[in-house]
Task: structure prediction
Amino acid sequence: MTIETRTTVEPRDIQTVEFECKKCNKVSSWPIGKITQPPTSCECGVPHSTHWMSPGGDTFTSITHLLDAIKRLAAAEAGEHFRIRFGVNGIEREMRKSS
Ligand SMILES: [Zn+2]
Result:
């Protein structure tokens, strides 16, 4: 038998946002309340810093809007008559019969 745990996340559950460089694997993490725009390059430093995105480009703009939406939804939730949740991959476990 397989049991899948259903997991959902509400905007107010989101505390940090992380960016991981695919080149050097450095992870940069920011509190959601302190970040308004995504970093445009890795913090690994000159001359090895990796360019991630251009300011004003589609990816930059989309992430900026997403960060704003998460903060607005987290703050607005208390006054709304609904909750919004996002499902994330659950944990699947094989359950073995004990005898
Ligand atoms: Zn890097």
Summary: Residues 21, 23-24, 26, 42, 44, 50 surround zinc ion (CB under 6 Å).
